[in-house]
Amino acid sequence: MPNENFEIQKSNNEWKQQLTDEEYRVLREKGTEKPYVGIYETHWVKGTYICKGCGHELFTSDAKFDAGCGWPSFYETIDKTHIKEIKDTSFGMTRIEVVCAYCGGHLGHVFDDGPQPTGLRYCINSISLGFVKKQ
What pTM value is reported for the model? Predict the structure, then answer.
């Protein structure tokens, strides 16, 4: 069912046709991939990380760092308007979920234990991301 809070509107069936089963589980059902298995966890190529669901730019490789947590981590987004932060109280924890501001795809969570200059750690599922190599 489409969510009117996002610019890109697709039915669950449309998302299932576009995404693999695992991409759908993470992006549309708020799943999490296992740590240390994602393609971008140890990926250090220069470029731009995009939303796997809709292609909007989210993070640059310049903001990526090795947090040692098992998922790609970034200390800032390309533009704060490209993501939405939502209070998440699932699993008995209080966290801040990060979703794509355009399609609502679940990306991961943001924590306040990252490096300067922001002090933030956007902990993102690799499977939620695509990548465009810098030319």
Answer: 0.93
Q: Give me the active site residues, please.
A: 123
Nearest 5°: the CA angle 130, 26, 76 is: 55
* 72-126 confidence digits (pLDDT tens): 999 999 999 999 999 988 888 889 999 999 999 999 999 999 999 999 999 999 9
Listed by start position, the domains of the chain span: 12-133
Top-level class of domain 12-133? mainly beta
Sheet arrangement for strand 47-51: 57-60, 47-51, 129-133
Nearest 5°: phi and psi at 71?
-130, 155
Helices assigned H by DSSP within 1-135: 12-18, 21-27
Check residue 113 and report its DSSP letter.
-
Structure tokens at 27: 């992006």
The amino acid that residue 96 corresponds to is I
- Reported as type and span, the H/E element at residue 74 is strand 73-74
